[in-house]
Specification:
about 170 residues; alpha+beta; Beta-Lactamase; 5-stranded antiparallel β-sheet; 5 strands; globular
Amino acid sequence: MKPIVLEPPMLAVFGSPHDPMHVVEARARAEFGDRAIIVWEGDPQTFVFEYVGGDAERLLGHPASHWLKPDFWVASVVHPDDRDDAVAFCALATGKGMDHVFEYRAITTGGEVRWLEDYVRVIKGDRGVPIRLRGLMLDVTERKQQSDTAGERPTLFVPSVATLERL
């Protein structure tokens, strides 16, 4: 596996690391229209969100203020069966300073399962060390349900940690 190269439309959404998050969110809205999205920014060491916008509350039921609490994403959003893989992959990719994309199941406040595709841009400081994460979560539940209808069982997409460790 090679580092993810974000496609031009996604790079355009993230823009410059100096762009305010409301600008990033406006670009995401322009790119994805009415599609449910969650634009976020967080700390690469603690994985605590510092900004959550978009449709976080509409999509999953959790108010944006809840997302800013330590361990909220892991404990309250990521499906229990996907937690270990999703967190390990994200931590390892971030530690290597690699942009990454992964899919996992999320739990709404009502107990419904939604599939999210999470695009993560690792922003590095002058020494090449990750200083901030910016991300965009897309609701891909419909696509997963269509693949299930076609006889394909929806699966968690997290590249193997062993593969990532070889980079």
